[in-house]
Structures are given as C-alpha cells and as structure tokens.
Amino acid sequence: MSLNFDSARLYNPYLRPEHEEWRTQLRKWLEKEVVPFLDDWEEAGKVPDSLWQKAADIGVLQLGYPEVYGGISEGIDQWHVNITNEEFTRAGSAGGLISNLLIHGIGLPPVMNYGSEALKQMVAPPVLAGEKRISLGITEPSGGSDVASITTTAVRDGDHYIVNGSKTFISGVMGADWVSTAVRTGGEGGRGVSMLLIPTDLPGVARTPLNRKQGWWCADTGTIYFDNVRVPAENLLGEEGQGFWVIMTNFNPERLSLAVTMEAAARACLEDAVEWAQQRKTFGKRLADHQVIRHKIASMKQKINATQAYLQYLTQAAIEGRCDPGDLAMAKVQASETMEYCAREASQILGGASYLRGNRVERFYREVRVNAIGGGSEEIMRDLAARQYKL
C-alpha cells in the first residue's frame, strides 16, 4: 500500500456510509468544477461568481443549516463539515477557496443563533441558495486577537445605530451583501461589545481589496469602512453587550475547521512527496530508497497520525457537546505545526519543483502562515488553553 491522501487517513469508527457518499459526491464535483481552474483563479485573484450557484446545486452551501431556511440538516453532523474541508483542501487550496465560497460558515451562524426571525428569513435563504453573501467582521487595523478592545463604535440614535470605524483582513468582504460586525456599544472591555448585522449597500460603507497576499490569492479579502452608517436597531444580533459571547462561541467551530484543513494540507503534502520520491531517481536509485528521504516521510506520517487522532476525538466531543475550548485551541496549534512541518519536508523532497507555482506543495507552503494566524494565532491559542486549564 502506497501512502496517498486516502490511505494515509486513519480509520475513523465514527464515519457512516452516508459520510463516505458525501465525500465521493463532493470529490467528483471538485474534480470537475474546481481542480481544472484553481490555478487560473489563483493567478487572477478571484473566483467566478457562477461557482456559488454551482455549489448550492450540490448542497455545499446549505450543509448543516435548518431546512426551513433552505438548508440541509437531516442526518448532517460535524463529520460532513470535516469531509468538506478535507476535500476542498485536497483539490489544492488550504482554506483560500473555502474562505471565499464558504465564508458564510462563520458569517451566518451569528444571525442564525442570535438574530430575530425576520433577520433569519431575510438573510439565510438567499445566502444558502448562492444568491447573496455574508461575511464576518471582527479584526480591526489596530488589532485582531484582542476582541475585547475593538474600537468600531455603534451609538444608538432612536431606532438606528450610527456606526463608525473599520475592519480589515476580512474574508469574503468585497462580495458580501451583509457583514456580521463586532461593534462597541458600551464601555471598555468585552461587556461593551455587541454584534450588528450591517448591509454593505448602506450609505457610508466603503471597501478596498487586500490582494497582495502571501497566500490565499483567490480569496476575497479586504478592508471595510463605516462612516456614520445608519443601521436599523433590529439588526442587533443578541442583546447589547452580548457580542463578546457571540464571537467566542463562533470561534470554536471555525478553529476546528481550520485544524481539519491544515491536517488535510499536511496529508496532501505527504501524498505529493511520496509520489515524487517513488519516481525521481538520484545516484542510481529512487529518492524513496535513500534513508534520509524515507525518514522524512515516516516523520511526516507520524505527525499526521497524531493530529488526526486528536481531531477525531475533538470532533466527536463537539458532536456530543463536551469539547473543551482549551483542547480545541491546542489542536489548532498542533495542526498548524504539522502542516508547516509537512510542507517544508515535502518541499525538500520535491526540490526545485516545489518552488514553481502550479503545484500543491508550493501553494500550501505559502498558506501555512495565514492558517497559523487566522482564527487565533498559535501564541493566542496557547494562552487561551492555559487560561482554560486554570493556570
């Protein structure tokens, strides 16, 4: 048995036949609609608008959302979401495509979990149908991980809030019709933070793209500005001062998805390194016959195994409602370290071939940093875990 993306996956006792059916269906779709075009999208720095409708047609956008709003929820669990992240990564993008096409995965839950019924009915159906888009605005130019110190303000004025400030490094913002936005409605600290759904077509909203990035080239990343934007008070998500809690509960699923993506990227790097090592010859024998190369591959598989086992445990814990945030934070660190290690070792094995654009190893190596920082940097994750462990 040669190591490849599938054979390097540990046996998962929690997967049912319908999970594998979803993997097969999604992989066929990705091979047809994404893989042949991804390099061009990366070079162009954008994804065609038609992809949203195509994704809705096979149920990718609707996965896990209530059927009353156009979602697909019966029999769907976190394993379906994990498989989706794995397969998009296998297609060649370690989060860049997902952070655009599936950005509603972090932008829509605040509406679904804390918005009024009217907001849910207005936003969810067109987003899940691929007709509209929604993003999440947390990070500011003055800081990212310190959510309790955000400076974008929302001052109540009758039946509206007047919003001033800006958000940056926001995935999917350039094409978004709404942004679930963290704003300061009260005093200092987390208790002064609220969440507000802001339509991007309101007067005073402006956006600029951030398109000179190390990785995630096809991702729709930008900065959004609010200049005396009048937002209806009924667009408040939850209660005033509840925003910090809304943000924190939204982070955990995002971090799990990021960790799954990074493990899948590490496994794809392993696959490409093994294939190259079995074909490339140096000094009269295959690279795979050199002990130093064999040891590199074995070490990659060792770290991938450990990360997979960790994620299997945490995924099932999340399904059963017993996932510890500290353990999840450390899993994200584990996954980013594994991805970085495997991308580096695969690059060493491929040599000069890994330095040319158009292969997964080159792209994944560039995408290590955004995955290690986004959703909470390694340093923040370690500190969060230490606090969760009551140190």
Automatic annotation (TrEMBL):
Species this protein is from: Zhongshania antarctica
Record keywords, A-Z: FAD, Flavoprotein, Oxidoreductase
Protein name stated in the entry: Acyl-CoA dehydrogenase
Domain Acyl-CoA dehydrogenase/oxidase N-terminal: 17-131
Membrane-spanning ranges: none
UniProt domain Acyl-CoA oxidase/dehydrogenase middle: residue ranges: 136-229
EC number: 1.3.8.7
Molecular function GO labels: flavin adenine dinucleotide binding; medium-chain fatty acyl-CoA dehydrogenase activity
Cofactor(s) in the UniProt record: FAD
Gene Ontology CC terms: cytoplasm
UniProt-listed Gene3D superfamilies: Acyl-CoA dehydrogenase/oxidase, N-terminal domain (1.10.540.10), Butyryl-CoA Dehydrogenase, subunit A, domain 2 (2.40.110.10), Butyryl-CoA Dehydrogenase, subunit A, domain 3 (1.20.140.10)
Family matches, as SUPFAM superfamilies: Acyl-CoA dehydrogenase C-terminal domain-like, Acyl-CoA dehydrogenase NM domain-like
